[in-house]
Amino acid sequence: MKALTWQGKRKVSVETVPDPVLQADNDAIIEVTSTAVCGSDLHLYEVLGPFMDPGDIIGHEPMGRVVEAGTGSNLKEGDRVVVPFTISCGSCWMCAKGLYSQCEITQVREYGSGARLFGYSRLYGSVPGAQAQYLRVPHADFGPIKVGDELPDHRYLFLSDVLPTAWQAVQYADVGEGDTLAVFGLGPIGQMAARIGRHLGARVFGIDPVPERRDMAARHGIEVFDYGEDTNDAIRDTTAGRGPDAVVDAVGMEAHGSPVGKLAHQAVGLLPDAIGRKMMEHAGVDRLAALHSSIDLVRRGGTLSLSGVYGGEASPMPLLTLFDKQIQLRMGQANVKKWIDDLLPLVEDAADPLGVDDLITHRLPLDQAPEAYEKFQKKQDGCIKVVLDPTES
Length: 393
What we know:
metal-binding, ADH_Zn_CS, single chain, oxidoreductase
């Protein structure tokens, strides 16, 4: 089969690799009909290289058709499914509490990480990813989400990651009717977090330096701001001087305006992999501008919800400010299956209340994935969300 493989810093290529095979009776093999490029894939492309190996298949936002099902998978050939990016058993102590991203069966204990993820480095199990023609799905008796045949792929595809991640971010922010919410970063997660906040009745401010992202958010009733020195003051001025009730940081470790963190990222990229891994495991190498701006902006007694990925173990935090402002801080990988009952009716609603029809900016065959990564990473051509079609040549 063809698959997108990691080959080095800022280098991915489509290669012919062996087809996946069933390895357990609760596995399934799906033919991938749509697979998206995630903002966190860019961390592999840029920052997390020390944890990658040449030839690793990347990607973690797929859907498709079952072509082979293990006897214990609860699936059958022909089922149309969305596959969550987290691999969870559904029955361990953590899963019983709805903490599927902390599954005790699939945790990567070598690195002290949570549940295994598709296509996401040694840190999360080096599981072959989903930007490929076929995908082996472990724990298919629990993970895959069966969907109908009437709607196009894009209505369901984002149940794999984007929508549950954004929904959890807003749930953790604890906002609803009449509250105020700011979202830093209007990539795919930020776009959906902002729309979900508005859907739940909040007044939402969206902050991003990229005009095309601000324009997309504005189409959905979000009050948009460029990212600059005066942005927080401007938003405070509209919230009685206090700041919003909650802030979602949907940016993560590669924030603009973080020169020290950027230098650290570049240094890690130049080191031999073994040394680079140690630096990532023990040093503060995140770009923290968006996080620090979020802490500054949120009102006293408010909530900060992190959905952007951070990778440094010793990144400095302004604890005095966090304590003094009495800020609640929540974060974590999305517990995808916990939120599906809330989200499935929304993506199937003909009125499209979350605007799922207005998120994809680029649809390309898998063969064009390397060009798509470069375009997405450099924010060129209005690239906000890329969906790859492995069935198209």
